[in-house]
Amino acid sequence: SQKIEQNSEALNIQEGKTATLTCNYTNYSPAYLQWYRQDPGRGPVFLLLIRENEKEKRKERLKVTFDTTLKQSLFHITASQPADSATYLCALDTDSGYALNFGKGTSLLVTP
Amino acid sequence: DGGITQSPKYLFRKEGQNVTLSCEQNLNHDAMYWYRQDPGQGLRLIYYSQIVNDFQKGDIAEGYSVSREKKESFPLTVTSAQKNPTAFYLCASSIVNEKLFFGSGTQLSVL
Question: How far is B93 from B111, CA to CA, in rounded Å?
Answer without folding.
Answer: 30
